């Protein structure tokens, strides 16, 4: 089955700086890669996703890049703000999160220092 | 429009007991998935149902079962509870079971097994 590794487990950055979280996956058949943000005691919320037919996707301060050859994808957050503090999870799926489910990484606790 | 709703929000059981968790998907969503999130870890896929049929199953023992009703709501049942079943159980809904299958999560049911 799919295996997703996520690094780092904790990331502390100064407010206004950029943050990068990296994930690798094992199953070359995976073609859907979402990122979820989970604040303490709340539900995971989708912040951005990318499919294997594109290499990069941006949404305001958030971007995701995908390298299919190396089987890794990354989340980039620019101009970080206090409300970006949360746990971020990457995930991978070969069926869009459907029949095979999403395989999640273990999460990155992002801390934005004022 | 209501999001994914789950009940109960919190519950405490003892080892060997049985538990039933419930989920109502977003209106118009026909697919429901269940995930287990142990503290400090990413969610782990348990089941996916689409149009009342099981379409996917993760690596969980037969003590875990689920079903989907004609109104697309779903139940997750866990028999013979173990201490290790203590976790946040997340339900997610989506419009279909593959392809553009963006998952929206509920707030979860936090199960504590004593």
Notable characteristics:
heterodimer, A: mainly beta, B: 114 residues, mainly beta, four-stranded antiparallel β-sheet, 11 strands, 50% strand, globular
Précis, in short:
The complex is a heterodimer of chains A (114) and B (114). Chain A is mostly beta strands and 114 residues long. Chain A contains no helices and 11 strands.
Number of helices of chain A: 0
Query: How many alpha or pi helices of chain B?
Result: 0
- Characterize the largest beta sheet of chain B: strand count, sense, and whether it forms a barrel: 7 strands, mixed
Described by the principal axes of the CA atoms, the overall outline of chain B is globular
Biggest chain pair interface: A-B, 28 and 32 residues
**What is the typical, i.e. mean, pLDDT of chain B?**
93
How big is the Rg of chain B? 13 Å
**What fraction strand of chain B?**
over 45%
What spatial form of chain A do the alpha-carbon principal axes imply? globular
Total number of strands of chain B: 11
List the helices and strands and how they pair.
The complex is a heterodimer of chains A (114) and B (114).
Chain A: E1 4-7, E2 10-14, E3 19-25, E4 32-38, E5 45-51, E6 56-59, E7 62-67, E8 72-77, E9 86-92, E10 103-104, E11 108-113
Parallel strand pairs in A: 2-11
Antiparallel strand pairs in A: 1-3, 3-8, 4-5, 4-9, 6-7, 7-8, 9-10, 9-11
Chain B: E1 5-7, E2 10-13, E3 19-24, E4 31-37, E5 44-50, E6 53-57, E7 64-68, E8 74-78, E9 87-94, E10 104-105, E11 109-113
What does this structure look like?
The complex is a heterodimer of chains A (114) and B (114). Chain A is 0% helix and 54% strand. By secondary structure, chain A is mainly β. In chain A, β6 and β7 (62-67) form a beta hairpin. Chain B is mostly beta strands and 114 residues long. Chain B has no helices and eleven strands. Chain B has strands spanning 5-7, 10-13, 19-24, 31-37, 44-50, 53-57, 64-68, 74-78, 87-94, 104-105, 109-113. In chain B, strands 2, 4, 5, 6, 9, 10 and 11 form a seven-stranded mixed sheet that branches. Chain B has a four-stranded antiparallel sheet with strand order 1-3-8-7, with no helix packed on it. In chain B, β7 and β8 form a beta hairpin. The termini of chain B are far apart. Chains A and B meet through β4, β5 and β10 of A and β4, β5, β9 and β10 of B.
């Amino acid at each position: 089955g799919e295996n997703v590794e996520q690094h780092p487990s904790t990331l502390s950055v100064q407010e206004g700086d950029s943050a990068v979280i990296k994930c690798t996956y094992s199953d070359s058949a995976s073609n859907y890669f979402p990122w979820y943000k989970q604040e303490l005691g709340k539900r995971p919320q989708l912040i951005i996703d990318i499919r294997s037919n594109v290499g990069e996707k941006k949404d305001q301060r958030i971007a995701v890049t995908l390298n299919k050859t190396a089987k890794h994808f990354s989340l980039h957050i620019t101009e970080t703000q206090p409300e970006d503090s949360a746990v971020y999870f990457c995930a991978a799926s070969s069926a869009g999160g459907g029949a095979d489910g999403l395989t999640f990484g273990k999460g990155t606790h992002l801390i934005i220092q004022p | 429009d209501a999001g994914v709703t789950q009940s109960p929000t919190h519950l405490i059981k003892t080892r060997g007991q049985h538990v039933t968790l419930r989920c109502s998907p977003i209106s118009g969503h026909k697919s429901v998935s269940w995930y287990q999130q142990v503290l400090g870890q990413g969610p782990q896929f348990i089941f996916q149902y689409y149009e009342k049929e099981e379409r996917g199953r993760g690596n969980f023992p037969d003590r875990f079962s689920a079903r989907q009703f004609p109104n697309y709501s779903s139940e997750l049942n866990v028999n013979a509870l173990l201490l290790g079943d203590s976790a946040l159980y997340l339900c997610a809904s989506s419009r279909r079971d593959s392809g553009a299958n963006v998952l929206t999560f509920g707030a979860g049911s936090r199960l504590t097994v004593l």
